[in-house]
Amino acid sequence: MTDSRQHRVDTLRQAARRKSEAKTKAAEAAIRTLVKRGEPITFQSVQREAGVSHAFLYGNAGLRARIERLRAQARPRLKEPAATTRSSRR
């Protein structure tokens, strides 16, 4: 590879890395904003708030794990049905 071509490749890689870092920061800020507002954390809500794609969120292992964890925490847990006693059946 010529020096000129290598320089262009390096420049493009740096630009892609900066773009990815900016998107990651935007997604993290969006998550914090949604949490502060008390809104549900979902891939769609983070995507809308941050202005990033679903593919980016799913492709970033750290963000994906965080969104899945926060989404699971927000789900209401199913309660065990109350046991019926003989006196309540009469």
Characterization of this structure:
With 90 residues, the protein is mainly alpha-helical. It has one domain. It has five helices and no strands. It has helices at residues 3-37, 43-50, 54-59, 61-74, 86-89. Helix 1 packs across helix 2. The radius of gyration is 23 Å and the shape is elongated.
Overall mean confidence score, pLDDT? 89
**How is the biggest beta sheet arranged?**
none
Structural class from helices and strands? mainly alpha
Radius of gyration: 23 Å
From N to C, what is the helix and strand string? HHHHH
Count of the domains: 1
* Strands, count: 0
Helix-residue proportion: over 70%
Question: Which tags fit this structure?
Answer:
5 helices, 90 residues, mainly alpha
Provide a quick synopsis of the model.
The protein has one domain. The chain is 74% helix and 0% strand.
